[in-house]
Design a protein that fits this description.
The complex is a heterodimer of chains A (114) and B (109). Chain A has 114 residues and is mostly beta strands. Chain A is 0% helix and 54% strand. Chain A has no helices and eleven strands. Chain A is globular and about 35 Å long. The mean pLDDT of chain A is 95. In chain B, a hairpin with a 4-residue loop joins strand 7 and strand 8. The radius of gyration of chain B is 13 Å and the shape is globular. In chain B, 34% of the residues are buried. The chains are: A mainly beta (114), B mainly beta (109).
């Protein structure tokens, strides 16, 4: 099994630009999660999907952030416009059974906004 | 605001010793508890889950849960330098999942 796949692994962009992060969950996992990790705030759950439907987006920091899951094998997290304070590592994770069960994390995307 | 608190460390132990990592949480309705290990520059990896009061052992790892005290701990026996990492405590309720900021563990040879 390939595990959770994320792209790109690194992204450097200028303030004001649109950023799109991509994730492919493990096949057969019905739940997909997006996280952001910074030194100051730790690992924060941004949004999660069940069967491609967003269940809870209360962790999304602002309207500049949006996430979609058009099918079971692909999800995107978009930031538009990006700001320097969005610089962080963004992880995608998937799970066969939800919040209360084991999650498998992707390698992460390190985003730097200058 | 549901909170999960961990001492940031670093916790330094010699090789072969027992490392004890602690976590407290604020939500009494929490149902599931996890310990993830994260090596520097890598993604979190689940090492233990616990759902009921008491101890759960898996190899060199023991998770302990005390819901009355809202306290979760992780014991690592016979610590190895390869255990050096940040350990994240995660607590799940019915519709929430909150991670602590992690405790850095350093195991010296």
């Amino acid at each position: 099994d390939a595990g959770v796949i994320q792209s790109p692994r690194h992204e450097v962009t200028e303030m004001g630009q649109e950023v799109t992060l991509r994730c492919k969950p493990i096949s057969g996992h019905d739940y997909l999660f997006w996280y952001r990790q910074t030194m100051m705030r730790g690992l924060e759950l941004l949004i999660y999907f069940n069967n491609n439907v967003p269940i809870d987006d209360s962790g999304m920091p602002e309207d500049r952030f949006s996430a979609k899951m058009p099918n079971a094998s692909f999800s995107t997290l978009k930031i538009q416009p990006s700001e320097p304070r969005d610089s962080a590592v963004y992880f995608c994770a998937s799970s066969p059974a939800g919040l209360s069960y084991e999650q498998y994390f992707g390698p992460g995307t390190r985003l730097t906004v200058t | 605001q549901k909170e999960v608190e961990q001492n940031s460390g670093p916790l330094s132990v010699p090789e072969g010793a027992i490392a004890s990592l602690n976590c407290t949480y604020s939500d009494r309705g929490s149902q599931s508890f996890f310990w993830y290990r994260q090596y520097s520059g890598k993604s979190p990896e689940l090492i233990m889950s616990i759902y009921s009061n008491g101890d759960k052992e898996d190899g060199r790892f023991t998770a302990q849960l005390n819901k009355a005290s809202q306290y979760v701990s992780l014991l690592i026996r016979d610590s190895q330098p390869s255990d050096s990492a940040t350990y994240l405590c995660a607590v799940a309720g019915y519709s929430t999942l909150t991670f602590g900021k992690g405790t850095m563990l350093l195991v010296s040879p």
